[in-house]
Give the backbone structure.
Amino acid sequence: MSRAILIVGAGVAGLGIGWRLAQAGAKVTILERGAPASGATFAAAGMLAATAEMAAAPESEIAFAAQSRSLWPGFAAELEAASGIAIDYRQNGALMLQPSPPAELPPGTVWLDGTAAQSRAPMLADGCGAIWAPDEAQVDSRALGRALAAAFTRAGGSLRTGVTVTALEPRAAVTDTGRLEADGVILAAGAWCGQIADVPLTPVKGQMIALQPPPGVALPEPVIWGNGVYLVPRDDRILVGATVEQAGFDTTPTPQARDDLRARAEAVIPRLKDWTLVEHWAGLRPHSPDGLPLLGPLASGVFVAGGQYRNGILFAPAIADHMRDLVLGRAAVIPAFDPRRFT
């Protein structure tokens, strides 16, 4: 007999977990108050930055990032085949700019002087060297959200939008239209998890802009990190992000952030002064007190998958697999990510 699972939240985590559980034969319903993948997933730059984002991370998170990064090529190919939607997965590498070589290079990277860095990205300002991480990759996070929603429903999952979950109970979710029971409930509501259950996740606002080049001007090939921003080439534009703001649940883009992001980006690539601003948006990242994810049980029949902070897209394949196995009793909780560590 198949297990009935409720998932609260249709972002990259909820959809990915739901897809994997539906593939495993579970009867899965995802509850979402808005449109699928319209929150942090839609706002993300889509970087799979297992090197750049892990510089000061603990070993547990570094290992999880490496595991998930290794899953991405197969995950992307399987998802595109299951959904019929291209998600633009590409391993185009990353340049992490800095004035001098570090004392120790991260594994799998090399040091490039200013001339060598410019050979990778000819529009870079003169004089700055870089750590070259050839394994860094990216994906179109907006296409990813659409693809996951399609793959989930094609696998037999039920996606219910316009449903607000107000509380969780053992093996049940309380919604604005009534109480729904299941064999298990997974909270994957991103920055809003703390409004539904007693989990210490808070929103951290991130603003981004997109710049479009003049006709005939090519985008840089790799992702570029420097001067407090990252620049991500995507289709006909370059994405520049991102602010880190304690602003509650406010997602209003501000002129100050827009101008600061642009000025920082222009210092990295001076020619961006001639590019056109075509989009400015903001999203909310879910952050835990120790900066690590919360992946595991909260109570009998209730689980949480949250706290991915800046790595929700990178962690998506590993979280989907791990939470499927946890809920089905096939895996143990990763101690560093156990949500009960705060209680």
